[in-house]
Design goal:
- Residues 12-86, 97-190 form the Ig-like domain.
- It is found in: Cell membrane.
- Residues 200-230 have a biased composition (Low complexity).
- It comes from Lygus hesperus.
- With 288 residues, the protein is an alpha+beta fold.
- The chain folds into 3 domains: 6-93, Sandwich (Immunoglobulin-like), CATH 2.60.40; 100-191, Sandwich (Immunoglobulin-like), CATH 2.60.40.10; 238-281.
- The chain contains 2 helices and 16 strands.
- Strands 1, 3, 6, 8, 9, 11, 13 and 14 form an 8-stranded mixed beta sheet that branches. A 4-stranded mixed beta sheet has the order 10-16-15-12, with no helix packed on it. It has a two-stranded antiparallel ribbon with strand order 2-7.
- Helix 1 (229-260) packs antiparallel against helix 2 (268-287).
- The longest helix is centred in the last third of the chain and has 32 residues, at 229-260.
- The chain is elongated and about 185 Å long.
Length: 288
């Protein structure tokens, strides 16, 4: 028969001995293993330190334990007559908190939400907090949601900041404290600028329906008047009169010129009228 279920608490660095006994006929053997199937480190005088997944014997000696050896151990008693019986022993090891992450930076947009998380190893880990540079986070009056997820020796602190304001940008500190010490980590929330482009559009005007119009046809008549024969003859008669007057005038001028030129008295009178007539005709043609 096995003893009662035990929860044993130790501090990191202690030497721990777990004892398990059972009775039966024939005498049962005892085997140790972790409930989660992980390996563990044992020590004995003949073999020294060894990492095993099972150990046979009534006493399980763990030397200078640390938080990795925390957990549930099973003491299993069995003989040739089934069934085997077991007892569960939970080993709890107290140790100072340790931060499992470096400082972080997280970007966010104004008005959005952001989720922050800090990972610690600690036992116990009951005392957790979030704060800013000056005071506790709740004194900033923001829309915050805080939570903690715990395993045997791990504590994950959660913080959700909703509807981010300008004052919400900056450093956030998360911490875990117990009787053996404390640990702190920080997360910086910075603003992500969103560029917006505005496209100006011209107003659109919806045309009003217009009344149907009747097409108008304009008829144009062009009349071309041809010159009459009488007008043409009248202009020709005036031209002939002008021609005779000019001819008589030039003849007189030619006679006067011939009398003054004694040297050329024999040649000029016969030729001048002809020359003057040619010049007169040319002059009249130029005028027309």
């Amino acid at each position: 028969m096995l003893g009662r279920a035990l929860i044993q608490k130790w501090q990191e660095g202690d030497n721990v001995t777990l004892v398990c006994s059972a009775v039966g006929q024939p005498a049962p053997g005892i085997q140790w293993r972790r409930e989660d199937g992980r390996t563990f480190t044992i020590y004995n005088a003949t073999q020294g330190f060894a990492t095993v997944d099972t150990y046979n014997g009534g006493k399980l000696e763990l030397v200078k334990v640390d938080y990795t050896q925390m957990g549930a151990y099973l003491c299993i008693a069995s003989n040739d007559i089934p069934p085997a019986v077991s007892k569960r022993i939970v080993l709890k090891i107290s140790f100072a908190p340790v931060s499992r992450q470096s400082n972080q930076m997280v970007g966010a947009v104004l008005g959005s939400s952001v989720n922050l998380a800090c990972n610690f190893h600690a036992y116990p880990s009951d005392n957790t907090s979030w704060h800013r540079e000056i005071s506790e986070i709740h004194e900033y009056g923001g829309d915050y949601k805080i939570g903690v997820t715990r395993t045997s020796f791990e504590a994950i602190l959660h913080l959700t900041v909703r509807n981010i304001r300008p004052i919400d940008f900056g450093r956030y500190f998360c911490s875990v404290t117990n009787a053996l010490g404390n640990a702190r980590s920080s997360i910086t929330v910075y603003e992500i600028k969103v560029e917006t482009t505005t496209i100006a559009s011209s107003p659109t005007t919806t045309p009003l329906p217009s009344e149907p119009t009747t097409p108008t046809t304009i008829e144009t008549t062009t009349t071309t008047e041809e010159p009459t024969t009488t007008d043409a003859l009248s202009s020709n008669e005036i031209s002939e009169q002008e021609m005779a007057s000019l001819f008589n005038e030039n003849s007189k001028r030619g006679a006067e010129a011939s009398s003054r030129r004694r040297t050329y008295s024999n040649s000029v009178p016969s030729s001048l009228p002809n020359v003057s007539l040619v010049a007169l005709v040319t002059f009249i043609l130029a005028i027309r």
